[in-house]
Design goal:
Blueprint (H helix, E strand, L loop, with lengths): L3 E10 L4 E9 L2 E6 L8 E4 L4 E2 L3 E3 L17 H10 L2 E7 L8 H12 L5 E7 L7 H12 L3 E5 L10 H14 L2 E5 L3 H13 L6 H5 L3 H18 L3 E3 L5 H11 L5 E3 L3 H5 L4
Parallel strand pairs: 1-4, 1-5, 6-7, 7-8, 8-9, 9-10, 10-11, 11-12
Antiparallel strand pairs: 1-2, 2-3
Helix pairs in contact: 3-4, 4-7, 7-8
Amino acid sequence: MNKRLLVKNALVVSDKETVLCDVLVENGIVVQMGRDISSGDAEVLDANFNYVTPGGIDAHVHLQQQTAYATIADGFRNGSLAALAGGTTTLIDFVTPERNESIVDATMKRKKEAAGSLIDYALHGSVTAWNENTTTEMKYLAEKEGITSFKVYMAYKKSIGIDDEVLFRTLRTASDMGAVVLCHCENGEVIDVLQEEALKAGRLNALNHALTRPADTEAEAVNRVLMMAGITQTPLYIVHVSTQKAALLIKKARGKQKHIFAETCPHYLLLNDK
């Protein structure tokens, strides 16, 4: 059955302009935009001069996941409902294999979990170790599953974090494939030492979370992965940048290297160690 919806008097926001017009939707697809579109048999919704925007894409989401430190409370159903409430209609979550688990097997399990999503979803892969099958599996996921981005962690070395050799191999393989590497940039070894010292000294208040992660632990890791991405010519996406030092390194690299991207989070813009 053909379902038609006509949104009247909408301030439609595009990547180029904001215009007052009507929007005709058929079976979930925008088929016409303009003034005074005839409604015909369509359901009519008067936007009353409110903004109408394209659905948002959240490229970094963790839902229904067990980590070494906690269980993420939001599942794909209620997480996608929350996304819809904010105008996000596509999310990109992660396949996070356990150490030496097949990335392909982990992807098949993750797709079953993500089936509960009420909005469009995609998946980033993750490389948490390296073996003789990793290159083949990355290429399989790109060709058969449409997964062309892979996340790596420079922290969490006792669970899913990788060393520089695996990081370099991942970057080089991704470059050969034309894939993107997302990188969680922290010097995990330094942070582990600082955390152990804080725990032994009983320094457990919230401030010590910041003190065990000095700005240089992020900046050093960002600098390291930027250098490797430069050698391998790999598209690089640095996730949740939290310090000015790291942001300045990324800005400088973007002037020299193509395809360097970064994201931050609201709390890093609004809060500091005070």
